[in-house]
Structures are given as C-alpha cells and as structure tokens.
Write a structure and sequence with these properties.
- Helix 2 packs antiparallel against helix 3.
- This protein starts with a helix and ends in a 9-residue tail after the last helix.
- It contains four helices and no strands.
- The protein has 121 residues and is mainly α.
- 64% of the residues lie in helices and 0% in strands.
- It comes from Dellaglioa algida DSM 15638.
- Keywords: Membrane, Transmembrane, Transmembrane helix.
- One of its GO terms (cellular component) is plasma membrane.
- This is DUF805 domain-containing protein.
Length: 121
Amino acid sequence: MIESYKNFWNNITNFSDTARRSDFWWPAIINTIVGFLIVNIYTFSVGHPITDIYNFSDLALATGRNIVVFLVWLANLSVTVRRLHDTDRSGWWILLQLIPIIGYIWFIILMVLPGKSNRWS
C-alpha cells in the first residue's frame, strides 16, 4: 500500500510505463479518504465550505488547494495511462470516460482487469 502510494507520486510525469492494479487503486482510495478528511476538518473549523472565499486567508487557501488539486490530477492522469498500458491499451482509452454512463462503467472494468504482457513493459 505504501509502496504503491510512493510510486504514485514518484511517477507523476511518467506516461510511458505500466502500473499494476494496486498502483492504481491504493492511491485512489488514499486520496479519496485524505481529501474527504481535509475538506470536512476545514469546513468544521472555519464554519463555511472550502469553496467560499471571504478574506485573503481564504484566497490563499484556495490558491494552495488549486495547486494541490492540479498535482493530484496530473499524478492520477499518469497512473491511469500507465494502468491502461498494463492492460495493453493505449493511453487514449482514457477518453472512454467521455461517453455518458456506459463509457465510465467500461473504463472501471478496464481498471479492474489484470495486467498482461504488453509493448510498454
């Protein structure tokens, strides 16, 4: 679990390798839990949603939040492309998510499939 999370951040700009299922799913679970906790702790401590900006400290926090969200998005994009490579598919299959409902379901199925020998290994 910890090794998968380290690989998630160490390969933030690596779009040409492969990623095992655990390298995809553990960071997804950890980032969801950590994000949920941070948002709820912040909301409880300041008394308003994290998206509302009332003063300069809220603006600074929003800027920092946007930077973190971008970095997590980039790392998630790269691990998703590497996971698709592990199932012997091109990274362009990520666009499958643009098809409403069915595309997203099929994409989840692709992420669950076991890896196989491929041209990216």
